[in-house]
Amino acid sequence: MTKLILIRHGEPDYSLVTERNFKGHGIDLAQLTPIGIEQAMAASKDKRLEGASIIVSSPYTRALQTAAIISKERSLDISIEVDIHEWVPDLTFNNISNEEVKIASEECTCCRGEYADDDTKKWEKISVVASRSFKGLEKYLNYEKIIVVTHGIVMRQFKYHNDIPYCGIIEVDFYKDFKWCGWVENIDK
Question: How many CB atoms lie within 10 A of CB 59?
Fold first, then answer.
């Protein structure tokens, strides 16, 4: 049985990327604030991380910086997993404005994260976030315990919490909580 220690990234600082007028995935280059760095340092000392064999991180800078701080404190390797990235507000990957991201987010919430396949919405369905996240982590099931540094939306696919603070930690059993979400049909234990 694989235990996941899910950690949300630390508090991000978007000032440098907004000063440079970055849009779309350029926003994801935002680094941690000094408080975010402190949050990651505190998370790295959490006893729940003891016994982990590897850190798996989202490729976004805020998650990678958090993972790097934990890696340094815990002397663990980091593996980057593209599929545990943040929710995508525009699947056409156009450089949409912050206001358009906000509208997509509100629409996603209003639709409870889903829409019909023939709908013209551009944002990523929550079921797709869950599916890609679970599939991305399957290759790490040979470990007994892994640290996963990711985003609140990904963490909620394993175990729902309304508010996950920056560097908040949630422990889950991959198979138990994978089943809980209904995605375990073809997995051999």
Answer: 15
CA distance 80 to 137: 11
Tens of pLDDT, residue by residue over 137-164, are: 999 999 999 999 999 999 988 887 878 9
Q: Where are the alpha helices (DSSP H) in the chain?
A: 15-19, 34-44, 61-74, 98-110, 126-138, 152-155, 174-180
DSSP annotation string for 67-94? HHHHHHHHT--EEE-GGG----S-TT--
Asked if 175 contacts 2 with a C-beta cutoff of 8 angstroms, the reply is yes
Contact 95, 130 (CB under 8 A): no
For the CA atoms of the chain, what is the radius of gyration? Answer: 17
Spatial strand order of the sheet with 145-150 comes to 78-80, 54-57, 145-150, 3-8, 169-173
Domains of the chain: 3-86+140-180 (3.40.50.1240)
- Residues 136 and 84 sit within 8 Å (Cβ to Cβ): yes
Which residues have C-beta within 8 Å of that of residue 27, sequence separation ≥ 6? Answer: 14, 17, 18
Residue the block writes with tokens 């990234």:
9
Tell me the pLDDT of the chain averaged across its residues.
89
Cα 60–Cα 13–Cα 87 angle in degrees, nearest 5: 40
Q: What is the pTM of this model?
A: 0.90
